[in-house]
Write a structure and sequence with these properties.
This protein is of the alpha+beta class and 103 residues long. The chain is built from three helices and four strands. The chain has one domain.
Length: 103
């Protein structure tokens, strides 16, 4: 499916910005701007690239989730949570109560 190719295309870009602390993973499966993103020494253009990558990634994740929810609801939830649980030590995550913390 097209959405999986989009995720693959943006994977390295999203990871780069997660490593920089600009993007983080939310428990609900979204890539989001972290609370410290604007404190980083990053150009407006780079921040825009990060947000574009996050938006495209989130759009594809939602499409995949919607598809899975129709045929395998349990798998759909696991799909969204997988990104949160696969974050690396030191990356930002937004936990189930909405607080941003470093993993």
């Amino acid at each position: 499916r097209h959405e999986y190719r989009v995720l693959e295309f943006y994977s390295d870009i999203v990871q780069r910005y997660r490593n920089l602390g600009i993007l983080g993973e939310s428990y609900d499966g979204r890539v989001m701007r972290t609370p410290v993103a604007y404190r980083q020494d990053l150009s407006a253009e780079s921040l825009q690239k990060a947000m574009t990558a996050a938006d495209q990634t989130n759009r594809s994740r939602r499409a995949i989730y919607a598809y899975l929810a129709r045929i395998q609801p349990r798998e759909a939830e696991a799909f969204l949570r997988s990104f949160y649980y696969r974050t690396r030590s030191g990356e930002w995550i937004r936990n189930p109560v909405g607080a941003w913390v470093r993993k």
